[in-house]
Amino acid sequence: MGTEQTTEVKRFKQVRDENNFTQTEFAALLGIKNSTADIERGRTKLSGKVVAQLLQQFGVNPLWLFGESSQKYLQVTKGDVSPKVVSLNSAENENIVLVNVKAAAGYPHNVQDVEWYQQLPAFDLPLPEYRNATHRGFQIEGDSMLPNFRPGEWVLGKAVPTIEEASNNRVYVVVLYDSVLVKKLQKLPDPSKLLLISLNEEYLPIEVNVNDVQELWQINSKLTFNLDAPSESSLLKQLQQSMDELKSEFKTLKQ
């Protein structure tokens, strides 16, 4: 006895036909084993993962797929992880805001609060590598990124506009909704997921949802200080002093 096709099966096959995929090709794209034949025959139900893939890959509206909406496509986000606030100096040039360990605890919850950023120290680095882009400094906490990044050191990160523009196996500052992490990034076959890897092998990789990433900063340099400094405030003072000395040297060169 034949089985009548459900709405979602008919529309699933419609999407495949419209994009000129064979059953095997479509299965590989959506992460289905072997072929889509069992789905199209009504033997296997559409899983949530497959529905999510149709949305991610083709913008197919899940409600349309199940006959609950006439709108076939949705505008799919490109994973915007650009800075939510940019700091400017008196000359209207971008500053490099510094987020120390203490400030990092509140950073995810204040990521869009302009007044909160005004409480943080900031400086301008007059080097071409730091022009025409937004940079931010973050202080390393813990030992998960040893030996490359030690506790108390500072990393400078360049803003990444979208997840799509992030590169595999590069180190990033990843701002989630509940924490700020410094990790090596690895994209996964499932485009809705990312793997965050510690350089210290004692720590296991962390899998996160792309939608949980608020900001992404690609690390391109770091600042190292004497780790025997007695307090966090002295590290900031040393950093400011180093920047002032650097500015003075550049002014001398220009004269």
Set down the secondary structure blueprint.
Blueprint: H1 7-18, H2 23-30, H3 37-40, H4 48-58, H5 62-65, E1 96-99, H6 101-106, H7 114-117, E2 122-123, E3 135-139, E4 154-159, E5 171-176, E6 180-187, E7 193-197, E8 206-209, E9 213-223, H8 232-254
Parallel strand pairs: 1-3
Antiparallel strand pairs: 1-2, 3-4, 4-9, 5-6, 5-9, 6-7, 7-8
Report strand order across the widest sheet.
2-1-3-4-9-5-6-7-8
Number of helices: 8
Rg from Cα: 24 Å
| CATH architecture classification name of the largest domain | Ribbon
The shape, in one word, is elongated
Main beta sheet strand tally, sense and closure: 9 strands, mixed
Helix content range of the residues, please? 25-40%
Strand content: 15-25%
Q: For the record, what is the CATH homologous superfamily label of the largest domain?
A: Umud Fragment, subunit A
| CATH fold call of the largest domain | Umud Fragment, subunit A
Terminus-to-terminus distance = 91 Å
Q: How many domains, in number, for the residues?
A: 2
Helix and strand pattern:
HHHHHEHHEEEEEEEEH
What low-confidence regions span 5 or more consecutive residues with pLDDT below 50? Answer: none
CATH class of the largest domain: Mainly Beta
Average pLDDT figure: 87
